[in-house]
Here is the input.
Amino acid sequence: MTRIDKTLTALTRPALVTFITAGDPNHDQSLSVLKALPDAGADIIELGMPFTDPMADGPVIDLASQRALKGGANMIKTLDMVREFRTGNDNTPIILMGYINPIHAYGIEKFCKDAQNAGVDGLIIVDLPPEESSELETAAKDTNLNLIRLVTPTTDKARLDKLLRGASGFLYYVSITGVTGSKKADLSSITPHIAAIKKQSNMPVAIGFGIKTPEDAAQMGAIGDAVVVGSSIVQTIADNGNDPKLAEKVSTQVKALSDALKA
Amino acid sequence: MTVKNKANSFKNQPDDKGHFGAYGGRYVAETLMPLILSVEQAWNEAKADPAFWEEFEDLAKHYIGRPSPLYFAKRLTEELGGAKIYFKRDELNHTGAHKINHCIGQVLLAKRMGKTRIIAETGAGQHGVATATVCALFDIPCTVFMGATDIERQAPNVFRMKLLGADIRPVTSGSGTLKDAMNDAMRDWVTNVHDTYYLIGTVAGPHPFPAMIRDFQSVIGTELREQMMEREGRLPDTLVACIGGGSNALGLMHPFLDDPEVNLIGVEAGGMGTDTDQHAASLTGGTPGILHGMQSYFLQDADGQITEAHSISAGLDYPGIGPEHAWLFDQKRVQYVSVTDDEALSAFQTCAKFEGILPALEPAHALAHVIKIAGDYDKDHILVMNLCGRGDKDIFTIAEKLGVEI
Here is the structure.
């Protein structure tokens, strides 16, 4: 069992998954936010691997990548950040999320080994459909990293079967057709789809994209096992990047999201 | 099908998963996968449907104006004193470049798939103009993503697209050029996946686009083969074409891949020189990577971050290249070279002076290489350059470079 499996098994309420981009706006500020997230109520952390061309992301997370890269971020520093986080926290799962090219440049096998050693628990690679993922699937399995698959409003039953092969940890339900930070999904349109997914698989389902406020989180928490909040947290980082109280500000926001899921 | 078209052929790529050797593939967000698979299925059906090709050929002839002439550049040949130089004149197509070939093909496919909205990215604006044109022809709403930098240097094409009814979306992310326009087009597509067809403008992107666009552009090389047999009674010795993503080059060369006696040369944009960081030569100066749905060669740093391309020519200003070119590069079937901004500019002037043709800055790169090598050959060596676009759109850029105010 990975930390992800343990966390999701132990919880009796929906889990809060929070996303930040590694190194945004610089290593130290980003690390201070990362370290503060568990106490603020994040059950699982998604750490974005900066990439110049994040095609599945809206402007908020795109700009976070550009800030991080400008601040000197790269894959080695992202893994360093996880290592530093693990010196004070051995429980909260960390998932690296991003695009395949920086991993390809690092070397897929070496990347999985180094990520596992640093204390990473899972991977979400948005531009790597099952058709292209056999090498990463093998490397992730060998290093006991969960490979988390994205399921979307365009996923039908046959496609879901394909996605489920090689999936582990949980299923990430992209609740809208669109990029991150778009407007929230209409609950009535996704509820039947989530139910259908649950029938086909007993893996936990996290719902993401477009979830910004505690109210959004509570609403989506009612139909999913976890909710993912990204752009609205990243926006707080964008607005307060150099503020020495950045971690505190993000914590206040995350606590409100967490409280909404505990209610 | 000839024997050559079997195992030892260079023409049997990609495989059924869209891979050209290690390159190509389908690296897209899961939301898009069902659509990508349905484009592939629709393309496979269309490809096998004679009625589809009948409509394509009818429009190619009467709307585009195909076949494009094969022109013997007599004065240039005499001036360079070597190879016998021909131009394949795809700049005489309707809309002024080869881009219209795959736009007609793809709009027919989009219509067949029942799509009601078309999006496209554009660099020089040639593909955007061609897309806006076919959308007007078929009465389909059209949105074109164009980098803000390119909008500035290609003002005439921007206005042409607007006249044709297209909605232009300026892209300010990154360097505001073709790569960034492609990112935003992908973002739009993932958002409007249900009704929208992404009319990709070169032999790039996820499978089946590289192979499909190549097949539409192969009309260039197929015509050339026939025209050359008629004119000279034999195949040409050397073919030269410029490469950004590589659609005109592949269209010219693909029908000749299995003729080992035909020497094939692709010319990348060397910008300020491939020994600087200001160029767009992905094969000469790049490494294998994954972007925009495909594995290919890209300009990138050791961390896998894509670096900015530079070229005087907006149409070549892209940090990647189509996956089939990456494969042909590794196979060494096509030789890839580069020429600089200054060499292209000088070739542009030579072409105007000796042949009375203003080439686009893209084929001016191909011509610059022709000028370099023509003298090395005998007079019976037949060299064909794809004159894939006309230069009217570039006169402002050229004026600025020459220090002229117009």
